[in-house]
Write a structure and sequence with these properties.
about 170 residues, alpha+beta, 5 helices, globular
Length: about 170
């Protein structure tokens, strides 16, 4: 067996071992520890896979603390992510001024993404933090924003009820 083949095998084994560890949102100080992986699922638009979503939470997957990771499978401009988020939040919030302000803040926070990129949203009692890897993208210290933002996926009025059901699937064991 060649050295490069050994390296590939060891790297593959290492990555598989990492995937089997309980996910706690990473080592970043901005992500809470002690969360368990709940469910995961995919979001498709017009038949195209847009992202895979994974939810980690404590005992209640609809209350903080929790973390939602979106692994993107397409290139999307950060402005478009913010606009789509506001569109979905309109089902949950009727105050247009609040939605406009939140949309502006999200447009400042969300980067353009490509296939393979991810964004982690962490909902804690004081609001939401957004991370990409160990890099803090920004935060919104507003409990109403946090509730509405995570409601995009977790509220009964979501436009993706199959994804909601997959995310809220209780952890095994």
């Amino acid at each position: 067996m060649s050295c490069s083949s050994n390296l590939r095998t060891n790297r593959r084994s290492f990555l598989l071992a990492l995937l089997t560890l309980p996910w706690t949102g990473g080592a970043s100080a901005a992500a809470p520890t002690g969360l368990r992986r709940w469910g995961s699922g995919t979001f498709r638009r017009f038949g195209f896979l847009v992202y895979e979503a994974t939810l980690c939470a404590a005992d209640d997957p609809q209350q903080p603390p929790l973390a939602l990771r979106l692994d993107y499978k397409r290139s999307i401009a950060g402005q478009d992510i913010a606009a789509a988020s506001v569109k979905e939040m309109r089902k949950l919030v009727v105050d247009p001024q609040k939605l406009d302000a939140w949309g502006e803040r999200m447009a400042q926070i969300f980067p353009d993404v490509r296939d393979g990129d991810h964004i982690l949203g962490v909902w804690q009692a004081d609001g939401v933090r957004f991370l990409q890897g160990d890099r803090m993208l920004g935060s919104v210290p507003d409990a109403a924003f946090a509730r509405a933002f995570f409601g995009i996926w977790l509220d009964e009025r979501t436009s993706a009820p199959e994804l909601r059901a997959a995310l809220l699937r209780p952890p095994a064991g």
